[in-house]
Amino acid sequence: METKLTRIAQIAKQRPKEVFTSLYHLLNENLLTQCHRELKGNKAAGIDHITKEEYEQNLAGNIANLVNRLKNHSYKPQPVRRTYIPKGNGKEVRPLGIPSYEDKIVQMGLNKILQAIYETEFMEFSYGFRPNRSCHDALRELNRIIHTGKINYIVDADIRKFFDTVDHEWMIKFLKLRIADPNINRLITKFMKSGCMEEGQLIPTDVGTPQGSIVSPTLGNIYLHYVLDLWFVKVVKKRCKGQAEIVRYADDSVFCFQYKEDAEWFYKELIQRLEKFKLKVAEEKTKIIIFGKYAEERCKAAGLNKPETFDFLGFTHYCGRSVNGKFRLMRKTSKKKFKAKVQEFKQWIKASRNLKISEIFRATSSKLIGHYQYYGITDNMRMLSKFLYNIQKLLYKWLNRRSQRKSFSLDKFNLYLKINPLPKPRIYASMHYVGASSVK
After folding, report:
1. Residue 247 falls within a domain, yes or no?
2. Domain extent for 413
3. Number of independent structural domains in the chain
4. Does 282 map to a domain?
5. In angstroms, rounded to a whole number, what is the distance separating the alpha carbons of residues 172 and 188?
6. 363 within 8 A of 415, measured Cβ to Cβ
7. Which of 13, 14, 47, 142 has the fewest beta carbons closer than 10 A?
8. Does residue 105 lie within any of the structural domains?
9. Cα dihedral across residues 123, 128, 134, 135: positive or negative
10. pLDDT means per 10 residues in the chain (440 residues)?
11. How far apart are alpha carbons 417 and 9 in whole angstroms?
12. Is the Cβ–Cβ distance between 223 and 216 less than 8 Å?
């Protein structure tokens, strides 16, 4: 099966205008069994309450039955089970869609087919939810563009509720440019319109990609490939008088320009371009700022105190200086993300404070390491240390609420930390551009 998918990827790369007419047969026993093996077994169950362990008890029979229903077109995706999880502030909640287990298997198989076709077509500046690409890679590319290019202005753009507003008709039109297999397109339509179940009530989904779906990120990338990426390369870059660049991670994008008039023209055109495909810019989150090597001088000339900052992928980007006094793009955890992560831990420790202290510290260590692995990038050590400090404060506070009597005095708590230390902050990912000056 891997050989077949590799062959499809080769054809897609060698013949960019190739339209695939026969793909549905790839959703066979071999591929779907492989997908079952790859799915994690500790995830929440959908509306059918079937887990991976239960499905595996009669795996051969279940997969054979699933393939048979796919072949005779009687397979129908179940609505996703909608639940709500708290946001980082502890006050608001966000919806989470949980597909049934069998639907996850089919979605993963479908996703493998789509990736085989589109991975060779997607642009190099697209990083979100793609194999062997990460948020850190996107940050490094943005670093390279600003350090080596002639960038003076940033358009920090945000698409309002992108995954909830993807238009189904346009989605299928885009897919048909490479996929002429009606069965594949029909299956994707079924997933997009499968609806969601909330408190026993079926809620139809006439727009948007499937909530919580494995295939949803790839569909989103396909949609933005045609709406945004190709348009930027074929129209925007050719229209601009100076340098114009883009770095995109899913629906989060940063646009870089040499000239102000190009940035302003682009922003107006972006609004119209997105509206054509039933999308909208979140204007309150979108801005044009002076940024880059000469931002300080330009700001002074414009009567501004200092260059503005922008947020991308959880980091605030700002203009800084190396130890040699040269310009350098710097980053730190954004205030919004920092506050959300602290609040998220607060909600967890509040609910888990009655566990054994050893279990609490073990889980806390795991959470800290996960935080460091993402936010542990060049220039962000201070924010990592601040995060650890806040976590220790919350531990002390909530461990002292395990009973009416205080469990810890501050001295005892510090002694316990000394004997059972939490992981110290460290930098996991370097953002240094090779040509940039080193820093302490």
Report:
1. no
2. 335-419
3. 2
4. no
5. 8
6. no
7. 14
8. yes
9. positive
10. 88 95 96 96 90 96 97 95 70 80 97 96 96 95 95 93 95 97 97 90 90 91 98 98 97 96 97 97 90 91 89 96 91 95 93 91 97 97 98 92 72 91 96 51
11. 52
12. no
